[in-house]
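Good day; I would like, with your permission, to put a structural problem before you. A protein sequence and the structure tokens that stand for its backbone fold form the material at issue. Thank you for your consideration; the sequence and its tokens are set out here:
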Amino acid sequence: MMRYHPLTILYRIYQLIKNSLILGILLFVVKRNSDFWLFEYGRYLFIAGVLLRLIYIVVSWFIETYEWDNHTFQLKKGLFIKHTSTIPFSKIQNVTRHTTLFHKLFGLTSLTFETAMDGEDDTIAFEVLSKQHATFLLELANVEESQVPKLENKAQEQAQQEEVNEAEKKVETDHVIHFEPTHQDLLKASFTSLSFLAIIPIVMGLYDIIGPLLPDSDHYQGIFYQIIDSRWLIIMLSVVAVVIAIIIGIVRTFSRYGKYRISSSATHIYIERGLLDETQFAIEKQKIQGLEIEQTLLKRIFGLAEVKLISSASPQSEDHAVSVNSLYPFLPINRAYQLMEALLPDYYVEESMNRLTKSSLYMKLLKPSWFWIVVTAGLIYFKPTIFQMDAAWWLLSLLLLLIVIVNRILDYLHTKYSISDDQLQWWHGGLTSRMFITKRRRVIEMSYSQSMLQRIFQLASISTMNRSTPTRIETINDVPLDFAKTFQHWYLQRQKDTIYQQEVGR
């Protein structure tokens, strides 16, 4: 039985301060003199909530424990209601190792095992670990059952710590590095990701915080109008703002994607990224359910794409801006194809794909857009004034209709599909297009349907389902009915893939 690292208490207090800082500034700085009941009572609730959380953090450290045996983790927690969960090593899908600035100060790291299980216990999170113990846990979850020492009594628990120390000596040397971005790649990513636009919410946030603290608002408004009247000053400030925005974008991109590396071994794919906050992500190749290649409008202009790995687990990234199961989001499209085939030789990109028929285009253009209808109905009822023009609301309706039509035409042009012996592949989407690739054995369910309008044009919509969290459902619309029937027959042959996979696994 082992407790979590003692610095877990300090780390959770650090997280509490970080998550409560903005609300604390609002209540005790920005609105410190407000007599409004919401802010007045909010201060008391804030203090009480922080104190209760601090008590819970300290007490829970003494209660929460973990241990392992020959093939499972056992986690025990619960302050008032004791809860014990057992998670087999075989259920682990992804592994994320995250080292923040806090961890670096103490020479520590964090580790998260993500599983294919449903519910609140679908992840095993070690918020603070020594690097040696993290290495040991990684090897423990990856070795075969026969290699794991069995713990038959409490006297043998001491051997766990000895194994931790020995694990530090083992280093993997079979990794093959497939991609490391150059400085030119990072600069291109800075502009493609539009990171420099982050200055806009930053400036607005600073204005909201500092504005109420200014003593003489009329005086500062006078200065503001003087700045507006000076053309050269506006130009100079605009140039400075643009330069600052670009610098912020470059710094954000380099800090997020610096030290980026994609590598692989015979069994796993590894992704490392980050300068200040380092993240290492590992996923077992055989547990990948499929691949997704996405291109936004801006990325298509620059010939870039993002490749994502689809697995049964849902990665718990602390940085929601970049998913940890995503390969480098700004890969040249041809490089993305090459990287995908290098990491997963079982997958390949089919160059020759079928396109939609002309009847599919007519179908897309004739299908009513309920979004446009609802918005137009609202504009007709409210008749809002836009740019001081009373009759401009109908122009907004026409603009929205034009966007809907252009998006459907682009969807028709981008949609391509194909099936091979054991692989499904299709592109679809309008302003943002996506390619989805999966193996037949990974598809747990398929169906095709027809609307009344599709029956007229002899078209259908195909849906597939893959194991993921949540369940991954992919749909391609307005394909010929004959292909839908062919696809159904192709899917029914998946039993051959299942039998083959079982034989290979023996």
